[in-house]
Amino acid sequence: MKPNEKLELRAKHVADMRAMLANAETEKRDLNDTELDTYNKLDSEVSRLKVEADREAKLESIENSLGEIKDQSVKMSVGDSAGDQFASKEYRNAFVSALRQKPGTLSREVSNALQVGTDSEGGYITPEEFDTMIVAARQDINEIRQYATVITTGSDRNIPTESSLGVAAWTAEEAGATLADVAFGRVVLGAHKLATAVKVSEELLQDAFFNVEAYLAGVIGKRFGLLEEAAFVNGDGSGKPTGIVVGSTLGKTLASATAITAVELMDIYHALGRPYRMGATWMFNDTVAKNIRKLVDGNSQFIWQPGLVAGQPDTILGRPVLVSSAMPAPTTGLKSVIFGDLSGYTIADRKGTTVQRLNELYAINGQVGYVANARTEGKVTDSNAIIHAIQA
């Protein structure tokens, strides 16, 4: 089924769900057991169809971008510092050869090529095309990267912030202006290390039809993406990034310990400063999403509006929705809803992912190991941009 066909089926399911709720409301009753079972099944299908359609659209975009990258390969020199350059064809081929063979069996030409990216402990800095594949896989799992500000840095970064803007005043002609100093602060972005190990059989490595580069990029990217999402959303900053939930400010205390109302969603929307609303995104987990899908406003219009085009998100009050399993549950005292301009959250990636081949550790099982490492950091850098709602 094509993405557009999935979205058409999704729209039909949404219409059926709304008809069920409208019918029950007209008869002034709750859904009966049979209706509730049907509603929940349709709700699951609605979520699944949206995820699949978006994933297929995103995959097509990624494949197109990777095709463009392959067409514009640029040679790198040892002294190059520009972050936009790609690995030379020689180095890329050498990197793939290193993934498939033991370092001691590499030809002299391949070994010379790999000197461009060899670290002191035997790991190979990956060509940028491989990094791009990993980042693409991480974004497929961890959608926070699509909304946050992402920078690449070679060292710790100090991000200056304005903690007090000062004021202006009306003055009489020839009267002196009132001096108002601006107060500045800073957010320090360091780095936290991600690591994972992958085992591949020697038979697969010897198979010319097995794309070891794509396989490793996919596995590593998805593992890193899941780990990153949990930290970018709710990390405590101890050995991992500080999450959006932790760095956000209070926008609304909900009346219920487990639920949210349509009026409270409107309160949250207006609690965020107007300059940030135009770029704001809602974020919560599946349980909250399921509850909000049933809510209507004062005109009996559903608050939740489904996206009917591949890649187009669902919206609430005109702003996109991001559903993350890393968000806290709607439970007493937890920050279950985020609303804000997520570009106020900055992700700082250290340059390059390293992949080290382990030749002997799994040799007895006829396998070769690969250890991948990357370093990243994340913090809220504009505390006014993102607010949360906390359950009573």
Q: Secondary structure elements and their pairing?
A:
Elements: H1 3-26, H2 33-71, H3 89-100, H4 108-114, E1 124-125, H5 128-141, H6 144-147, E2 149-153, E3 157-164, E4 183-189, E5 192-201, H7 202-206, H8 212-234, H9 244-247, E6 249-253, H10 262-271, H11 274-277, E7 281-284, H12 286-292, E8 304-305, E9 315-316, E10 319-323, E11 335-340, E12 345-350, E13 354-358, E14 367-380, E15 386-390
Parallel strand pairs: 2-12, 6-15, 7-10
Antiparallel strand pairs: 1-13, 3-4, 5-14, 7-11, 8-9, 9-10, 11-15, 12-14, 13-14
Helix pairs in contact: 1-2, 2-5, 3-4, 5-8
Element-level helix/strand string = HHHHEHHEEEEHHHEHHEHEEEEEEEE
Q: Describe the strand arrangement of the main beta sheet, using strand numbers.
A: 6-15-11-7-10-9-8
Alpha carbon gap, first and last residue: 44 Å
Computed structural class: alpha+beta
Which parts are unreliable, with pLDDT below 50 for 5 consecutive residues or more?
A: 72-85, 110-123
CATH class of the domain at 123-285 and 324-392 equals Alpha Beta
What is the strand content? 15-25%
Mean pLDDT rating = 80
Q: Tell me the helix content.
A: 25-40%
CATH topology of the domain at 123-285 and 324-392: Major capsid protein gp5 fold
The biggest sheet, with number of strands, parallel, antiparallel or mixed sense and barrel status, is: 7 strands, mixed
| Count of runs of 4 or more consecutive helical residues | 12
Number of strands: 15
